[in-house]
Amino acid sequence: MCGIVGYVGARSAQELLLAGLAQLEYRGYDSAGISLLQEGEIASVRAVGNLGNLRSAVERAAGAGEGAVATAAHYALLVLAVEAGHWPAWLASGAGAVFGAQVAWLGNRALTFAHRGPLGSSWWRFQIAAALGAAVGMAIVATTVALGAHYLVGQVIATVAVMLGTYMLNARWAFSARPDRG
Asked: Which long-range contacts (CB under 8 A, 24 or more apart) does 134-140 make?
């Protein structure tokens, strides 16, 4: 069965399109997709199966861009603090993590998890998850530097090690869709 939903206007189209597709879901379909105009380009996401699969694909697509921006902010501050400020690499890693976390929170709230709950509770929960990740990352950077490796090698290892854990924690706690989780 085929159904088409469209929207033109000033509001965010992504959730409106997904809600419209949900209204058509009773008809049954084997795949779904949405296309959005973003910065003059058409961005499309498709998924096989039900609407839940499409929502997951949209979240992954949004999270990849948001995560790249947050990671770039983290690394930029890290390199600036180490190279220009002569900070210890582990401390610069922590400062970069704090800065990157603020960029990530904004993107995660608006895009990745499309969270509409209270700002305060999601912000504090996200900060706790970020602080845990930063502490692990700082320890990894300190250890790799102590072993004689370049601080950026340590930071790459830390980024990979921390990314999945903090994503899962934020998805289940900071930006949970459950009403009792804010």
From this structure: 134/93, 134/94, 134/97, 134/98, 134/101, 135/94, 136/161, 136/162, 136/165, 137/93, 137/94, 137/97, 137/161, 137/162, 138/90, 138/91, 138/93, 138/94, 138/97, 139/90
**Beta carbons within 8 Å of 56's beta carbon, 6+ residues apart:** 47
Which of these, 58, 9, 62, 65, lies nearest to 34 by C-alpha position?
58
Domain ranges of the chain: 59-181
Structure tokens at 63: 């999270």
Residue type, 165: G
Instruction: Please give the structure tokens belonging to residue 80.
Output: 């600036």
Chain position carrying tokens 């003059």:
40
Angle ∠(23,24,25) on CA atoms, nearest 5: 95
pTM: 0.61
- Phi/psi of residue 66, nearest 5 degrees: -65, -45
Please count the residues of the chain.
Answer: 182
Bridge partners of residue 45, in order along the sequence: 34
31-69 pLDDT tens trace: 888 877 665 667 777 878 877 877 777 766 665 667 788
